[in-house]
Design goal:
Layout lengths: L2 H16 L10 E10 L9 E6 L4 E6 L5 E8 L1 E8 L6 E7 L5 E7 L25 E5 H4 L10 H9 L3 E3 L5 E3 L6 E5 L2 E3 L16 E7 L13 E7 L9 E9 L3 E11 L3 E12 L15 E13 L4 E15 L23 E18 L2 E17 L14 E22 L2 E22 L17 E2 L4 E2 L4 H5 L11 E22 L2 E13 L4 E14 L4 E12 L6 H6 L4 H6 L10 E13 L5 E19 L6 E23 L2 E10 L2 E8 L12 E2 L4 E12 L6 E10 L24 H6 L2 E3 L18 E3 L2 E2 L14 E2 L2 E10 L10 E9 L7 E6 L3 E4 L4 E9 L1
Parallel strand pairs: 1-7, 11-14
Antiparallel strand pairs: 1-4, 2-3, 2-5, 5-6, 8-13, 9-10, 11-12, 13-14, 15-16, 15-46, 16-17, 17-18, 18-19, 19-20, 20-21, 21-22, 22-23, 23-26, 24-25, 26-27, 27-28, 28-29, 29-30, 30-31, 31-32, 32-33, 32-34, 33-36, 34-35, 36-37, 37-42, 38-39, 40-41, 42-43, 43-46, 44-45
């Protein structure tokens, strides 16, 4: 089927229902509405209605109108405990299950009883478990609003890393979900995002705009595709029904000259609402640098997010999300990037590389309530990231130990599409069917030239013979040297320009049904993807999940399976796929005779959820993923030209656990931990340079981590808007390290000549009590005395890329936040809050990674303090 016909099918599917006679919700949230009456059928006005889900921290209150009606909108999918209290009536409670955009209607009849002056949501253990086959983590703003976050410039990804099991922390906001490199997708109010979200690729959604998160770590339902190691469903904040303007103004200042100002406002009425969030950030430590000492690391970020809701009628509503973000930042330097000496022996100053990213997103959505059981949704979206990378003004200042080129880049990624779905809830069935069409436009403009005079003399021909004569500055015709000589700036060459463009089209159709029968829950679904990128493919992807609720013990047992299509990363996809066809690139980077063929994955999950009383819930999952054509990233030198590469297959087993303590007299706790093995198998079948030998032996990718955990403790004094404290403990056993240069014999752990003095300092290398300095590196050492404090180096003769690779040393990090939301004890709506945050309390000098194939070397944030004042209105 051609893509024009497919596009017509999408719109035909949409308008088929437009002629059918929403006050329904968006893709990631539902609504609860109803009427409170007495036993005679008369409406009960001014009754207090409260809903809560203790595990996520969600809690909301409404007051019934003169007709006894109430309504909760923008409610994330979950099971809620509902309590009603009214003067002169006995308290009433029931559980309400919100699993679709179809509004949930409840009818409540109160009995005459003791007068109730207040309402308290009290849930039992059965209310805390979900009869769901998909392992996921729910977190509401009430829980994460007081979470001390490590990075102000990537607060969204920091939040996801801390609250979800299976997320390995990496630098600059990267999230390695369950053993995969950034194979994460996001659904923001139903809009799909499958491109990179870390701050070196794009600008993230501001955390001020987030109402709640659901992070799916289990087998993904059929509505999600492409990159599904972690699926993050985001429900944004809304102003619908906020009749009195409500918001806050925030200002903060902290270590490294980090300043942040923010403003958010929710306002509207019963038919409309608007929420807007504005913030601006500047910092002297914008990215995670390759040195503990911050060098050349300034940056700033400006963010605008706006959400508009409007109920056109009782059946029709429209919704619009808008975001614009701009970031500008320096590429952090190492000590090797200071006072660079060019090929003539001249000091050309410090390396001065910079980046700018502009992100634009607009997503309108129309929903129509077809009947009391069915909702139709039609949405469109356009998102664009424009990335500009600027080299040093003097190109020879870009020379570094692992960088022989100067590079500039102007790259655009525009994703446009339309989505439509129908949700139908009736009896034991909860059905959702949908179609999504996406068209991604990729434009890549790269300019680069050689700035290392030793590169050509070290280059060989196909037989391994030198192909360049440095005395005569001549190259052997027909060899890589002859191809590269025209772009060698040390020999009067000029910059080479690569221009690439392609369109990637993809259409997905899916249908899924959650069948609830007694204690059983069945999730049945199938998804079909038609991918038309540089290498096309089509695939049918069945999904299956079964859960059983043992109600007497508050236990849920579950198993699930998913078949998924694995598509390549879009960032620098053109150069990765077609670069080997360009003589200059093929001569500069080793190439494999392949493009970027999409892959497929079979994954299996088994787990359980157990509530112990009403104050402790344990959720655990074991997973096994097998991928054919498994993706990773590689990088050109120390540049931002990061591109997808592909291996023959990967095997990823692991486990993930979440332990939750719902609110108990102001105290809440959340612990998540996991461990995964990320075993990849050559040969490389896609992308550019070969980063691991083609021996066929498996190796651990640098997403592999034996164990990590985060514990968050939070306590608020039992008074409204009183003082509170939040504490984080994060432990990482250490990702697999990058290119540690091992010696060729079996008696020496590492080849000391393979390190610069600065790199020896970065990993804390030492020979007994002798430590290197920038001017005096270690050149020899007794193997029994050689060790490193920040990288675990296997003993001589024991290193194995699969069984015993080098790893980043384990680390414990502690963060603290204390605050008061109403320091002056105001009784009106105007309140002043104060917060103090300390990150890395013990000032651990530890690494995220070292010489990573993808991202190089990065240190974890040193101890940093931030003071924040907020005016609430």
């Amino acid at each position: 089927m051609g893509f024009r016909r497919i596009a017509l099918l999408v719109f035909s599917f949409s308008f088929l229902f437009s002629a059918t006679p929403s006050r329904a919700q968006l893709g990631n949230s539902g609504s609860i509405e109803g009427q409170v009456k007495d036993q005679s059928g008369a409406a009960v006005a001014n009754a207090t209605v409260e809903i809560a889900y203790g595990v996520s921290g969600f809690q909301r209150t409404a007051t019934t109108g003169s007709d006894g009606s109430f309504r909760f909108t923008n409610v994330p999918f979950n099971t809620y405990h509902l309590v009603v209290a009214a003067s002169g009536f006995a308290p009433y409670s029931q559980d309400v299950d919100v699993r679709a955009t179809v509004p949930v209607s409840v009818s409540i009849s109160l009995k005459i009883g003791t007068a109730a002056q207040s309402v308290t949501v009290e849930a039992n253990g059965g209310d805390l478990v979900e009869n769901e086959s998909t392992f996921h983590t729910d977190v509401d703003r009430g829980l994460f609003d007081k979470l001390p976050l490590e990075s102000a410039s990537s607060s969204f990804s920091s939040l996801v890393t801390l609250v979800s099991p299976g997320a390995a922390a990496d630098s600059n906001g990267l999230i390695h979900g369950l053993g995969d490199h950034a194979e994460n997708s996001y659904s923001v109010d139903g809009q799909p995002f499958t491109d990179q979200f870390s701050k070196v690729f794009s600008n993230q959604l501001p955390s001020d705009a987030i109402q709640s998160l659901e992070v799916i770590s289990g087998a993904p339902p059929a509505e999600f595709g492409d990159k599904t190691s972690l699926v993050v469903k985001v429900t944004t904040r809304s102003g619908l029904g906020v009749t009195k303007p409500t918001g806050s103004v925030t200002a903060s200042y902290g270590s490294f000259g980090t300043a942040n100002v923010g403003f958010n406002l929710a306002y509207g009425g019963h038919k409309w609402g608007n929420f807007i969030a504005l913030n601006a950030l500047k910092s002297g430590r914008f990215l995670d640098p390759p040195e503990f000492t911050v060098l050349h690391d300034k940056g700033n970020l400006e963010n605008v997010f706006d959400r508009l809701d409007y109920n056109v009628s009782q059946k029709d509503s429209i919704h619009l999300n808008f975001q614009y973000s701009r970031s500008w930042f320096q590429t952090p330097n190492t000590f090797d990037n200071l006072n660079v000496i060019d090929f003539n022996g001249n000091n050309v100053g410090d390396t001065d590389q910079r980046s700018k990213i502009g992100t634009f997103n607009i997503a309108p959505t129309w929903t129509r309530l077809i009947s009391s059981n069915a909702v139709f949704t039609l949405g469109a979206f356009v998102r664009r990231d424009q990335y500009n990378y600027y080299p040093s003004n003097n190109p020879f200042a870009d020379l570094g130990p692992i960088n022989s080129e100067t590079i500039s880049q102007d790259r655009k990624l525009t994703n446009a599409g339309v989505r439509s779905d129908i949700s139908y809830v009736k009896g034991i069935h909860n059905i959702k069917a949908g179609i999504t069409f996406e068209h991604t436009f990729l434009t890549e403009n790269d300019r680069f030239g050689i700035i290392d005079p030793n590169l050509l003399p070290s280059t060989t021909d196909d037989l391994g013979n030198p192909c360049f004569d440095p005395i005569t500055n001549t190259a052997t015709p027909g060899t890589p040297c002859a191809t590269l000589l025209p772009i060698d700036l040390t020999r009067a060459g000029s910059l080479f320009t690569f221009r690439g463009h392609t369109d990637v089209k993809e259409i997905a159709l899916y249908v899924q049904d959650t069948i609830t029968k007694g204690n059983w829950s069945f999730n049945l679904g199938i998804r079909g993807d038609l991918y038309r990128g540089l290498e096309p493919t089509s695939q049918a992807e069945p999904r299956l999940g079964i859960a059983y609720n043992i109600k007497p013990t508050n236990t849920v047992l579950r198993i699930s399976y998913a078949r998924t299509l694995e598509t390549p990363f879009n960032e620098n996809l053109v150069v990765a796929t077609t670069g080997c066809n360009v003589d200059v690139i093929a001569a500069l980077i080793p190439c494999v005779p392949a493009n970027s063929p999409p892959g497929f994955r079979n994954e299996f999950h088994a787990g359980f959820q157990q509530a112990f009383g009403k104050y402790l819930v344990v959720d655990a999952e074991y997973l096994w993923k097998y991928t054919h054509n498994a993706y990773d990233f590689s990088v050109l030198g120390a540049t931002p030209i990061t591109f997808p590469i592909e291996w023959h297959n990967s095997k990823i087993p692991g486990y993930a656990v979440r332990i939750s303590v719902p609110n108990y007299k102001g105290f809440t706790a959340l612990t998540v931990f996991s461990g995964v093995a990320a075993r990849f198998f050559p040969p490389q079948v896609g992308g550019l340079g070969v980063t691991v030998g083609q021996s066929g032996l498996p190796f651990r990718i640098d997403h592999d981590e034996k164990f990590n955990q985060t514990t968050h403790l939070q306590y608020q004094l039992p008074m409204k808007h009183g003082p509170w404290v939040g504490f984080n403990w994060r432990y990482d056993s250490g990702l697999v390290a990058g290119a540690v240069p091992f010696a060729t014999d079996t008696t020496t752990p590492v080849d000391l000549t393979g390190f610069t003095a600065d790199q020896q300092l970065q990993i804390g290398l030492h020979c007994g009590n002798v430590f290197p300095t920038l001017s005096s590196p270690l050149t020899s050492c007794d193997p029994g005395l050689l060790a490193a404090t920040r990288v675990q180096i296997p003993a001589p003769g024991t290193e194995n890329d699969d069984k015993n690779p080098p790893r980043i040393a384990p680390r414990h990090l502690f963060d603290l936040a204390v605050g008061h939301d109403n320091i002056f004890g105001s009784e009106n709506r105007y309140k002043v809050g104060l917060q103090f945050t300390a990150v890395n309390l013990t000032n651990q000098k530890v690494l995220y990674n070292f010489l990573s194939t993808f991202s190089g070397t990065h240190f974890v944030t040193p101890r940093a303090f931030t003071a924040e004042v907020t005016f609430h209105f």
